[in-house]
Amino acid sequence: MSNSMKNMTGSTSRGSTSSSNGLLTVTIASTHPHDPAANDDDDDLLLDPDDPFDITQTKNAPPETLKRWRQAAFVLNASRRFRYTLDLKKEEEKEQKKSMIRAHAQVIRAALLFRLAGERELGATVVSTTPGGDYAVGLEQLVSMSKNQNISALQQYGGVKGLSDFLKSDLDKGISGDDVDLSKRKNAFGTNTYPRKKGRSLWRFLWEAWQDLTLIILIIAAAVSLVLGIKTEGLEQGWYDGGSIAFAVLLVIVVTAVSDYRQSLQFQNLNAEKQNIQLEAMRGGRTIKISIFEIVVGDVLPLKIGDQVPADGVLITGHSLAIDESSMTGESKIVHKDHKAPFLMSGCKVADGVGSMLVTSVGINTEWGLLMATISEDTGEETPLQVRLNGVATFIGIVGLTVAAAVLAVLLGRYFSGNTKDLDGKVQFVAGETSISDAVDGVIKIFTIAVTIVVVAVPEGLPLAVTLTLAYSMRKMMADKALVRRLSACETMGSATTICSDKTGTLTLNQMTVVEAYVGKKKLNPPDDSSKLHPEVLSLINEGIAQNTTGNIFVPKDGGEAEVSGSPTEKAILSWAMKLGMNFELIRSNSKILHVFPFNSEKKRGGVAVKLVDSGVHIHWKGAAEIVLGTCTQYLDSNGQRQSIEEEKAFLKKAIDDMAAQSLRCVAIAYRSYELDKIPSKEEDLDQWILPEHELVLLAIVGIKDPCRPGVKDAVRLCTEAGVKVRMVTGDNLQTAKAIALECGILVSNEDAVEPTIIEGKTFRQLSDQEREQVAKKITVMGRSSPNDKLLLVQALRKGGEVVAVTGDGTNDAPALHEADIGLSMGIQGTEVAKESSDIIILDDNFASVVKVVRWGRSVYANIQKFIQFQLTVNVAALFINVVAAVSSGEVPLNAVQLLWVNLIMDTLGALALATEPPTDSLMHRSPVGRREPLITNIMWRNLFVQIFNEFNARKPEGKNVFKGVTKNRLFMGIVGTTFILQIIIIEFLGKFTTTVKLDWKQWLACLCIGLFSWPLAIVGKFIPVPKTPLSRCVLKVFRRLKKSRTA
């Protein structure tokens, strides 16, 4: 069994099951903390492993499961029903194309290596450097070198330095980046874009809309009716029946196609937003943020763990740089990059280390660009709700088809037995007297009615209503700073019972400043007062900060204010050092970096080995204060003298605790001297060298303030009221985590801050699986956690029946984001690896935006229920009236045209009106929606048996005031108004087409009063109490008990 199948089996077992055909069914999460029925002893009676529509989670679901529900669905218009689900056939073709392109590239490289080996035997050949316009090297030479990874060609250009000169770029400062320079580069080497396949046009949607089998039958029936009508009654009168059916069908097709086309445009816009990655580039000596599409040949780009390589290029510098090339080679192999293997391929991910690259090929001139241009981006993806609604549609469709067949049989029986009379009381069919053409005409009219009943009864638009409400929600969520990458996450978020949130940048502002500083055992007051520091101490602090950083400082030539770039922590420390008098450029130019140990979320620190002017070596470390302090044996006092740290450790630990209690992030800076001859001289040995991390000399400890975001406390309170528990998972120490949790309202009081409510990651990871599952439910704050601790917490909570949303921004957060029910990555601080593993990207990194996503998730479910109630009301009424009338009198009161009009209101316009209802505050005053909660609740069944007026009732199935907030939804008001006006036009002016008669004002008033009566009737109906146990659950229990007793 595949891992994904195992995961899915696990998730299915965590939530109870569903009903037959995913319909009325279903169950609620078996160990759900908010589920009053969780302890029901009869849950086992509801298990139905054979139900193809019971898919608790489509995230990571195997293709076999997805094929199974498609095959089980009763479908009359597959192109419409399955439009926004994953095209499994195209997905297979896409993988085959990728394999072909990868294999082609590998064959070319192998052939080149063979040729180069032969050339080395015969003597080196000179690569021609054909000028490319303003540049000394041409496009073809660059593309050939990059695609073939021809290191021989690179060497003949003079290595990366010589190549950068050819491309008029500076390896330290990048290109100038002015408009003229960028224009020249784009003209000479192309842009970092690739041709995309155009989305489907409106004509394509029109073509697909009319391919519904029932509509095709009606068009044929309309054509035959038109011919027979003209033949028997003449052109002037005979074209009405056939023409009116044809027009009604045409109207349904146009409205359906336009609605679907509008949705497709929304998905295209969202897709374009997902692909617009923002990254850093060095231009004119400063680090700036640009779009991936703005990268040009010659750009110098910094690379860090989690980044996507945005174009083909050559390594400039790298420290422990490892690239995951699986997206291009198809093999999950990590490749280490150095000057012997310097080529970087677009589309790959930085798995480890840091470095910088020179861009040599962009867009369609890269293998990644070619791959992206060849395969089309499939926006299809089913959601659990979509699958269940396909089950509902299948069930209703089979019932409708059965009813239509019964109506057809009854009407044909009555017609041919002489029991059907026209308006004048004349028998329509008399054996031996009625002409064949009249008989055929009569049969066609009966057949048309039966087919139209099928059109009304088979709700093809029901699963599509999910897509409509999801598309609407996705567009609105963008305004609320949430970019949805996976559709199913929208609805799953409505079921979330817990949110595991990061601290930094999510609960806090991520605007960091150093507010306290200890140098040696002396506290600086103010923290940037350098006058009390010994010059040697100050020099070492500045050297450590300037060299051991991934940030940068740009000082404009005109003497303007210096620009500090990097992560918020790096920016805070660099800014503090600048206030102490650090000259960033001078320090970096006076010493050479030998080796870098990038900051590691497991070790909580990063280091660098630096060669000085006098050939001495300093190794600088920076990281979590108590961890770095634990590796120090000495400190520098105010006179610059080394002193033993043992006697002062208690004082320094108390200083760290005091700062942490003020919710400050504590960072320690330390160093040690080292001998140059002990450092490996060969590059491959240096890459494997481990920086000495013991016997360090403490230089400084700084406390960095990162204030809580405004509104976070209210957002946490809102979650708590909504039955969603907020847990904080952070790499900061436990005291800092506790202080922030109290400030944000995650912890209510100091009395709550006891283990296991507040726990260290190390303690949690040492527990057994069973103990972790028990403890996970009680955890509110986890400090000093590693990404693996976060993953263990998510797994333990999910095993306990929770629906888990988790936030993450680092590359190492990817497993937890992938494992969670909803992965939320950060748009500003998040790495590309984290974003690709997530379901939703929080664009402003704000926890309040996460809470808005919960609101929208609940709104999706609520809107679908509104639409189902409205549609079933019309379904039941239309079918019931026609069946009763057909059986009792042989006539149907609603003819084909009238039924098609009802279908248009019910299916497309109804979905548009109700699926676009904005979320209300009341949604956050309920418990989370159980993932297996019945789609049709007992309240909906009650309301069903109590149409323009009913559309208002459907807005609030539980609320008594159905008009609250109605004016805020302009689309709803517009559709209701349009329906009302069209209804008047149909009755008053289109009588011959629709077989209706004009009404006088008294009759119109009577119609209005009858319609308006549905409002007070619905209010009275809402006072009728309903049992908590779903009706479908009770029926299923009885049915399965009977089944069990028979087999016993």
UniProtKB/TrEMBL annotation:
Pfam families: CaATP_NAI, Cation_ATPase, Cation_ATPase_C, Cation_ATPase_N, E1-E2_ATPase
One GO CC term, this protein: plasma membrane
SUPFAM superfamilies in UniProt: Calcium ATPase, transduction domain A, Calcium ATPase, transmembrane domain M, HAD-like, Metal cation-transporting ATPase, ATP-binding domain N
Positions of the UniProt region annotated as Disordered: 1-62
Domain Cation-transporting P-type ATPase N-terminal: 156-230
Taxonomy, superkingdom: Eukaryota
Bias (Low complexity) ranges: 9-22
Gene3D superfamilies attached to this UniProt entry: 1.20.5.170, Calcium-transporting ATPase, cytoplasmic domain N (3.40.1110.10), Calcium-transporting ATPase, cytoplasmic transduction domain A (2.70.150.10), Calcium-transporting ATPase, transmembrane domain (1.20.1110.10), HAD superfamily/HAD-like (3.40.50.1000)
Alphabetic keyword roster: ATP-binding, Calcium, Calcium transport, Calmodulin-binding, Ion transport, Magnesium, Membrane, Metal-binding, Nucleotide-binding, Translocase, Transmembrane, Transmembrane helix, Transport
EC number: 7.2.2.10
GO molecular function annotations of the record: ATP binding; ATP hydrolysis activity; calmodulin binding; metal ion binding; P-type calcium transporter activity
Catalytic function, reaction form: Ca(2+)(in) + ATP + H2O = Ca(2+)(out) + ADP + phosphate + H(+)
Record's bilayer topology term: Multi-pass membrane protein
Subcellular localization: Membrane
Principal place of residence: membrane
Family membership: Belongs to the cation transport ATPase (P-type) (TC 3.A.3) family. Type IIB subfamily.
Family annotation (NCBIfam families): ATPase-IIB_Ca, ATPase_P-type
Function per UniProt: Catalyzes the hydrolysis of ATP coupled with the transport of calcium.
Name used for this protein in its record: Calcium-transporting ATPase
